[in-house]
Amino acid sequence: MARLKRYLPILQWLTGYGRDTLANDLLAAVIVTVMLIPQSLAYAMLAGLPPEVGLYASIAPLFAYALFGTSRTLAVGPVAVVSLMTAAAIGRVAPQGSPEYLGAALVLALMSGLILTLMGVARLGFLANFLSHPVISGFITASGLIIAASQLKHLLGIEVSGHNLIEVSGGLVESLRLTHWPTLLIGIGALAFLYASRRWMGPGLRRLGLPAGSADMVVRAAPILAVAVTTLASWGLELGERGVAVVGEVPAGLPPLNLPSLDMTLWRELFVAALLISVVGFVESVSVGQTLAAKRRQRIDPDQELVGLGASNIAASFTGGMPVTGGFARSVVNFDAGAETPAAGAFTAVGIAIAALLLTPLIAYLPIATLAATIIVAVLSLVDFSAIRRTWAYSRSDAMAMLVTMIVTLGHGVESGILAGVGLSLALHLYNTSRPHSAVVGRLPGTEHFRNVKRHRVETDPRLAILRVDESLYFANSRYLEDLIMSLASREPGLAHIVLACQAVNTIDASALESLEAINTRLRDAEVKLHLAEAKGPVMDRLKHTDFCRELTGRVFLSTFDAWRYLRGESQHLGQPCGGTELANAGNPD
Amino acid sequence: MARLKRYLPILQWLTGYGRDTLANDLLAAVIVTVMLIPQSLAYAMLAGLPPEVGLYASIAPLFAYALFGTSRTLAVGPVAVVSLMTAAAIGRVAPQGSPEYLGAALVLALMSGLILTLMGVARLGFLANFLSHPVISGFITASGLIIAASQLKHLLGIEVSGHNLIEVSGGLVESLRLTHWPTLLIGIGALAFLYASRRWMGPGLRRLGLPAGSADMVVRAAPILAVAVTTLASWGLELGERGVAVVGEVPAGLPPLNLPSLDMTLWRELFVAALLISVVGFVESVSVGQTLAAKRRQRIDPDQELVGLGASNIAASFTGGMPVTGGFARSVVNFDAGAETPAAGAFTAVGIAIAALLLTPLIAYLPIATLAATIIVAVLSLVDFSAIRRTWAYSRSDAMAMLVTMIVTLGHGVESGILAGVGLSLALHLYNTSRPHSAVVGRLPGTEHFRNVKRHRVETDPRLAILRVDESLYFANSRYLEDLIMSLASREPGLAHIVLACQAVNTIDASALESLEAINTRLRDAEVKLHLAEAKGPVMDRLKHTDFCRELTGRVFLSTFDAWRYLRGESQHLGQPCGGTELANAGNPD
């Protein structure tokens, strides 16, 4: 039963579900539904898909997440960045507007769902660690800029396409003279209203005495107001017939049931995109989920979250949807509105289903420029240039990863951007740990402490070099270690002993072990003995049974001071050959 | 001048070059030449190239290395693994035997030369760290098996092709009935002789009173004996006309000067192969070079080595050669024969040039089965299955990387094998460091020491959790850290303080910093304060100016014991807010 509860988290909360919880969840659902309708339409449009696809993607996936997800308050559905990635991926395999384009979106959702579920079942959530914070931050900022730029055409009422900033900007400038002025008026109006409501409505309402939470919620409902007003205007003034682009006829009804294509060529073409969408969506979703869970001292299980998001995407793929994930803004609204369980998500799904059944005749009049304005305002809040400055101040290599991700995303598209960022951050991590901080140390006179000979006035012995390495030893730095020690040995002709002080070494992998063997052999050829000091318990446990240990020319000491006294002949009963029994509990145990 | 000497290492030894050194270098050159002739022919054949290409690749590249290389005794030329990789790469772009096939080998050498030189100039030698020891070991073993299997057809006198073990074995079994018996006789004879000379000749000669070094050298000359005897037999018995495959007419003369193709499509197709050949060749060469240099307490400079190998490959590409690198066996022979400077390499090149001018009429009669036998004996010494067992005993994840590299190389080819190994070892490294060893610690009664609560009987305080993390904090484990701390907070309802004990934290990257910020904020929402203890000097220096430090809810303590006393109200003057001035020299400086 405990096992079942783990894989079907709904069982954890359904049994204790009472009337108060129901009331809270219902209220939150109403508020989120109002917010989600324009978002669903807008993000479907951003992905180049018909508006109803956005609504469909906000129904079945929400039920699926309520069954399998572990966050109590996460609200799933189409989100900006994933929609942009969807557009880039399926735009490569089919022309926008064709049935193949729609079909590719379903395949992408199914693949992404399967990848997420598999990652969850195989507990591969750690793969998301490949995306470092700077890469995510750079990617989100760049995506926000691309999305905002891509919506300008809708504000201007012109035709432009492209998946990176250069293509989009070029197209815009070319077509600027074709601007449709009534469309621009609506777009700018909606944009100004949305911006003003974000900027001034909240504080204003609070000054009028509304509690901060409620004021925020009214602000977040501003897009639905913009949608309602411009739709009415469009209907009353027959703007659609005057050349203003409107959403147009949307089929009323519940999501269709369909089977995604099983064309393997298509699957292969979309695989990398599906993988990246899965990982990016997961990272975005899990960080929102963790932030919200922490506020109520709840927990989410990242591996089960993968299953929850996977189920949501699979549900989307069978019901005419598109790739989905947990959205930041809507989850915060859900949380603030008092949602207590994933049931709020299910109720939201019911709300969207009602909208899909009843509101589509109205949605037909909705000007596309209004949707574009809501997208622009939403994504520009994701753009954070100050992060570059802050990261640069803290760490050059992290800032470099961020900048490269941003530049490649802007210049070459979303997938290249992420891959470049991941590749670079791995390379930089290897580079940084491949030349770990190290110091030749000497004894602070009169103490048992050993410090860097370059920074402190310390005692040294020409026959003895003590080297402290401040990093675990593994494949990225094992060659550097060889080089470091051999250069030490070749520099000091009188040297007879090298002591490796290992207090900062948490692990030694097989590459580093082979390097240590090579170092030991080469030092033996050069008639220098190699000793270890301060090795930790777990490290020593593994070393004990190796050839390195059997062939080590020197001894193993509990402390650097022991090594110092023994090797200077001041004491004879310190340290022992490697592989001795006492060492099991030496150093820094547990 | 010092700068020039660095980039042109020949200047370091040429000025002090005397008569004794000359004599030693000349002797070594003669011995290496004798050994290199059959090897050059054999490895050219392994790469599917005409035999003279192997000779050409052993002339100009040796001069280039003598100018730019830093190892005093490394002997460059065609080597087994690189030749196998060359065959796999150029076999994809042109049919063997065509002029395009030859041209592709030149392009591959040029690209590999440029890549190596660029890596050297940009000091990118650390990229070789991506190849961990287990991956190299698995790759070499698998390559040895493939190479040995690929030569069986020459022993049997039949036609088979393929670049992985499955293809090769399948072909062999199919064609077994076509075995050419005289060829098999020569092949088996050569194989038995070479094997026996390795096994028994050395010890036998030593028992007869020959010094160990000389005995080894005679053994290493065994292939030339096999070549001479079978060539004579082939000439005397006219074996070529009786269906035994012989090398056939080889143009006599010095290497031609040529310009490699600049066809960009070809360059693009060969890029990944050239990159892998460069890295594998560099790793093989640099480890031989370091081992030999250490024996005489000399040093090699890995970045300059890249330039040396790059120059060699560029030289090969303009003189009708193929990709080259430093070979293990021939470098050891060169060293043992007493070579003192790279001049020995230049003299070897002269020797090979003389062979190319004068010996080609003889080489025409050389049975291919003899070359196959020398290749098989040479590469089987690279096959090391015991490494799997040893590595498995030491580290499961390293053994896994080794096995996967081996299996993919055997089943899918050399490039896939390396890429799979590198990918897996990176993923495993991230996985292992993404869940670092950590422990909630408590106080050993009566001491200032804090140990794992699960392993020791220690004092704890329900309002206080002290967490020690035994790893640097970076993007691979930052999410785990968040999860770890938030689960700690959600498990203990009475908790008011969490102390992060950082003695094993060598660095905190930007991802981990953001995670710490998120942890601090979430803990604040949950009314738990976050404190730091035992943070090292350099880590604290960088943290001091961050938002995390400004917003940290708790204090920073020099020791865990300070934190314990302060947070239990036993002392009020311990620790300080983050960003205080005293901390600059706190913890573990330098």
TrEMBL record, chains A, B:
Keyword entries, A-Z: Membrane, Transmembrane, Transmembrane helix
Checking InterPro entries in the record gives: SLC26A/SulP_dom, SLC26A/SulP_fam, STAS_dom, STAS_dom_sf
Q: Which organism is it from?
A: Marinobacter azerbaijanicus
What is this entry's stated membrane topology? Multi-pass membrane protein
- Its recorded name reads Sulfate permease
User: What gene makes this protein?
Assistant: sulP
**Cross-referenced PANTHER family:** SULFATE TRANSPORTER
* Chief place of localization: membrane
Annotated NCBIfam families: sulP (TIGR00815)
Q: Does the keyword rRNA processing apply?
A: no
Q: Does the keyword Membrane apply?
A: yes
Q: Which Pfam families match?
A: STAS, Sulfate_transp
Which residue ranges run through the membrane?
Answer: 21-41, 53-68, 75-95, 101-122, 134-152, 178-196, 217-237, 270-294, 306-329, 341-359, 366-388, 400-428
Q: Where would I find the STAS domain in this sequence? A: 454-567
Where found in the cell? Membrane
CDD domains (UniProt xref): STAS_SulP_like_sulfate_transporter (cd07042)
